[in-house]
Amino acid sequence: MVIADVFVARMKGDTPVNSTMSVGQARKLVEQLKIEASFCRIKVSKAAADLMAYCDAHAC
Fold it and tell me: What is the span of the domain harbouring residue 36?
């Protein structure tokens, strides 16, 4: 089970009995969540429009 899956399962309250998260795994998860939280996000509609404009500009 991936660390993030364990975290999500714990948040939902449906963690399997045999699933435990070590301190090291929790630290890795926290670091990953910090990295993801720092990403600059844009709306999907803007990303789609940018992609369409790029494709139009670079079509053969």
Answer: 3-57
